[in-house]
## 1
Amino acid sequence: MSEVTIEILRSVSETDTEQIAALVAQLTSKEVVPSRFSEVARSTDATLFAARRDGRIVGVLVLALYPTLTGRKAWIEDVVVDSAERGTGIGRALVERAVSEASARGAATIDLTSNPSRKAAHRLYRACGFTERATTPFRLKR
């Protein structure tokens, strides 16, 4: 198997958009809105990471950074690796690259959430040094 590279996407091509849409569809049943991919790539508040093998995007992760009154924080979202590539270290490489970027940009903490059914993802996050927090998430949908 060829090497996987992790890169930051500042723009997305039509091919990138198709590949990211296929990955996001593996993550959620929510409607995939491809125009959001370019919006995230151009954002100064978020960083879109892509894992590529042989030019094809096989994993993605979004890192959001924001200031708070208690310090700069980061949030990891939309971590997904193609089902055919899972278990090969791509998820770990994406998370480690995002953690490195968040640290370099001054984040005091990095948070993420994960569906309780995603046991393999939980093992990955623990292996990367994340610990579960005793907190109650709230959401307001609009």
## 2
Amino acid sequence: MIFRNKKGISPLIATVLLIGFTVALAAMVMTWGSGFIKKTTEQTEAGTASALKCATELGFEISGVSCNPDKSIASVKVDSRGSVDIKSLKFRFISDAETTVEDKAEVLSAFGAKTYSGFTKPNPNTKKVEAIAVISGGDGKDDIICSQAIEDYTVNCPTI
């Protein structure tokens, strides 16, 4: 059987349809991609701002530790050397047997000093104290835990 009256779309219409589909597909990819890139950029900017604030404005040091008779920590003196207030400190008390963590939500003013005491989770035979600062994110943002700015102090409690 020979079909002499075949009907189909002309090459011109086929080309126009292909170009139309390509443009529509490109527009969809661009719309999705721009939202994705914007979200990723905003997250990166926020993380960079937090890290920069911790690195440039924060500075503190554990300047002294006093011990209880069981060699647990009685108090820790911290000096602020940065231009930002420290909202709270997370203390880690490390011994051979265990590590305990305690938060102290007491503000340490910029360039100030404070002695923290009254720890509720004593860790006998503490060998090392670490402190991690938490600073304000500012303008209603979440607080920033400056985990890369850890200060430590080797404890040498006298034997009684």
## 3
Amino acid sequence: MNLNTPSVLTINGGSSSIKFALFESEKSLERILKGRIERIGLPQAVFTVKGLNKEDNYSRSVAIPDHKSAVALLMDWIDERIEPGAITAVGHRIVHGGPKYWVPQQITPEMIEELQRFT
């Protein structure tokens, strides 16, 4: 895969996994791939990607001690396959956003400050 069309990357970080999907954004947000890094910080972690084409499918065991390493692995994988500038937006699911942050919205410095107070 060598993607150069405008796309949206979505990320859902959990306690021992990161799930992600890439959507083409030129037309109707068609999902073109999905993947996950599972068992972060545990033995036998796995990085898996499933695309629209069989040749885009990918799975391998990885040694991932923490989420920072998992994100680095994901970004390296993306950098090798997606042209610079193709990702036009990134969405991230926040589980504990309190009463104010429960619907999709753009991240602001104020939001970051408030979310940091929740931790």
